[in-house]
Design brief:
about 160 residues, 2 domains, mainly alpha, 7 helices
Length: about 160
């Protein structure tokens, strides 16, 4: 987490410097847009981290291990894929939640299936994809996408025993 923070600070500083060197106020406008984005998403971030905190405190470890633990097999992979499709929100919500489940005993294979499914098959994306891309595109992408989280989860579970 610390290295990611350092990288983001360095990237922000480089971008600020590049904007400042343009001498057209870009550095100020960039900060204004950043603050506007923070104001729009701050409540969502606070709620998301509260949910992660409650899941962390209330999670029944034995249930997590039995449903999506390292020994859960195909059931865990299928459940991970299904849960991944249902997870709402962006990475700031999903990654802390999956990390909490992983710390509670979720297997590596089901956790990878969960993340892969969320990124490829999030149900919320259909509402955007269908109007722009159409039924055929969506059906083909989903048909192919349904297999991928299971395959990578199974591969990881088989190779790394998780």
């Amino acid at each position: 987490m610390i290295s990611a923070t350092v990288i983001l600070i360095a990237l922000a500083a480089i971008l600020w410097l590049l904007a400042w060197r343009r001498h057209d106020g870009s550095h100020r406008r960039g900060m204004e847009v950043g603050w506007q984005t923070l104001r729009r998403t701050l409540l969502l971030l606070i709620i998301a981290f509260m949910i992660v905190g409650y899941v962390n405190v209330l999670q029944p470890q034995a249930l997590v291990q039995s449903l999506i633990g390292p020994e859960s097999g195909w059931q865990g992979l299928l459940l991970g894929e299904g849960l991944g499709m249902l997870l709402p929100g962006g990475p700031y919500v999903v990654f802390p939640l999956i990390a909490t489940l992983y710390e509670a005993g979720a297997g590596l294979g089901p956790a990878i299936a969960l993340i892969s499914s969320w990124s490829m098959l999030g149900l919320l994306s259909i509402s955007f994809e269908l109007p722009f891309m159409g039924w055929r595109f969506t059906a083909v992408r989903w048909g192919l996408g349904l297999a991928f989280p299971l395959l990578v989860g199974a591969l990881v579970a088989g190779i790394l025993g998780g």
